[in-house]
Amino acid sequence: LGFAFMISTFVAKAASATTVGFAIFIIGFLTQLVTTFGFPYSNTYEAYYRTIWSFFPPNVFAQALNILGKATATPEDKGISWNQRKTCQSFETDCIITVDDIYIWLISTFFLWFILAIYFDNIIPNVNGVRKSVFYFLTPSYWTGKGGKMREGGLCSCFGSNRPADDASPTDEDVLTEENLVKEQAAGNEVDPGVAVQIRGLRKTYPGSFNMGCCKCRTTKPFHSVKGLWVNLEKDQLFCLLGPNGAGKTTTISCLTGITPITGGDALIYGHSVRSTAGMSNIRRMIGVCPQFDILWDALTAKEHMELFASIKGLPSSTIKSVAEQSLAQVKLSQAANVRAGSYSGGMKRRLSVAIALIGDPKLVFLDEPVETCQIFISSLVTHKMPHVNLTIYILHRQLAWIQ
Ligand SMILES: Nc1ncnc2c1ncn2[C@@H]1O[C@H](COP(=O)(O)OP(=O)(O)O)[C@@H](O)[C@H]1O
Ligand SMILES: [Mg+2]
Q1: Ligand 1 nearest-atom number relative to CA 226
Q2: Which PANTHER family is this protein grouped with (predicted)?
């Protein structure tokens, strides 16, 4: 099990898991066959062969079966009782390993592989290319839970330090006034009680190089996606972020929701900083997110999606059913509640994603291009059907007319 966990940290996609699993099965089958024929558990082989061979759990397991098989080969054989597990059996000409040794070895290697699995899981980049440093466990902040820096890029990538972009200076007067106000407040480390989110010079630079294998690198220029954003987002408001494709709207949301680490500046959400892991875990409890691309399972119905996410959010089980029904009614999906999401139209999927984002009365909701939903959603807000939503960050780049 520990070995399987460890291997799974290297497998990013479910589709490749089948191939990797089958490959390991074949390798295990062959090495078990070799073990059954006597390699390397006999005096003819050096001890280090046995040690290396035994790190692959199926091999030691095969040796245990081998010993047990020999002990029960004929009807007269008595087998091996629990008390005899430490003693060498009479049929063994060279007693190299006992069943007890195998038990101890398998239990110890379970912990070894399991710890390695946790370690690799932390240092190997996730789907967003985010990972912890190679020596993350040596930093006190990891153990106290008060921080810990996330990094980006592969383990053996080759980017040096990126020069931060110069902050883009706004040309609009009102934007400049807002920026100066936030800068002033940030300098005094004060947050207006009416402000839900204070973005303080948020910068995001995607590293400018990528690694090809471990030895060859090709360097491209770093890309500055968000260049110093200063803005206060008030409570009880619908805030819309408008901009053309590639303006950095999704990047801003990803930074605020902790999907990707920020490269400069800071943002406070209800007083919690997105820079610290402790702050981020508090933020996650109070936000709802509808990502730009739907993350839904084709085989589940809308109702099942709602029930699943409601239980993940920790809603009491007695309320889950009614919350699911209510939310689906709000996004006009009641009729399709028992239909699998795989057969939904694009708009229906977006509406379901919005309903999921609203589960558990989040204080703050991020909606990244909900397009089809915006009319329903805005009218719901305006008619106070969702009074719990304090602030919505709403992103749109096309249907400007809808929000006018
Ligand atoms: N993982 C990434 N690596 C490098 N560049 C990226 C990455 N994600 C986004 N970008 C770039 O950052 C810019 C902003 O992207 P995005 O925030 O998705 O824009 P949008 O405003 O359309 O949501 C785009 O030019 C995009 O190419
Ligand atoms: Mg986007």
Answers
A1: 14
A2: ABC TRANSPORTER A FAMILY MEMBER 1-RELATED (PTHR19229:SF205), ATP-BINDING CASSETTE TRANSPORTER SUBFAMILY A ABCA (PTHR19229)
